Amino acid sequence: MSALSKLIAVETKLFLREPVSLFFVFALPIGLMLVFGLPQRAGTAADTGQHAEQTFLPSLALALTIGMLALFTLPMALGIYRERRILRRLATTPVQPALLLVAQVVVNLVMGVLGAVVTAIAVRFLLDQPAPANLPGFVLAFLLGVACLFAVGLLIAALAPSARAAQSIGPALFFPLLFLAGAWLPRDRMPSALAVVADYSPLGATVDTIGAAWAGADPELPQLIALAVTAAVASLAATRFFRWE
Length: 245
Hints:
Blueprint: H1 3-16, H2 19-36, H3 38-48, H4 53-83, H5 86-90, H6 97-126, H7 135-159, H8 163-180, H9 192-199, H10 202-214, H11 221-241
């Protein structure tokens, strides 16, 4: 096995041994989707058509899966590795620390995809909702959402001075982004300026583009561009400021 494949295997085992991470990926999104309930979204959908329950709840659940991996699990793991000098020790071996970073991203990405599949199956059979109608648009929106949120997570890992700081910064950013995505207050009821910001925020744009593709429409191009630009800028900044020690 190559060094990267060994690291991916080890990181996968460590991920699977962590019940909190598994809960974030597979249980919490489905639970929240069911707790929010059908009646709460049905009234909103009748008024605006923007947050139709059949597309908003599944897209929100998928965004939750991606967001929790990107902003909770990834920065915390890399912060712990830096704090425990694991990255510094790797730098003295033939295995480069950058490979550990790649392995972390790969493992979290695979888990995110598996979580998305489980969520889609749950939507189909538990809520009796159809599968995504625009599959190419759905895949594009999902991948751009993953790239955007993971890049933000890597930037948090790059800038956080400690593992504890990474554990605090991720949730502190995640819950405002979740609010902007319309989890508690539909965006049509937000002030106009805030609604515009919400439409192009990482979670807001992810929810909208996935939801549009799920319903069979084409995702909005400006929102896709916003996700791609955020991913590129955050990735460059994370690469520039990431510290191995």
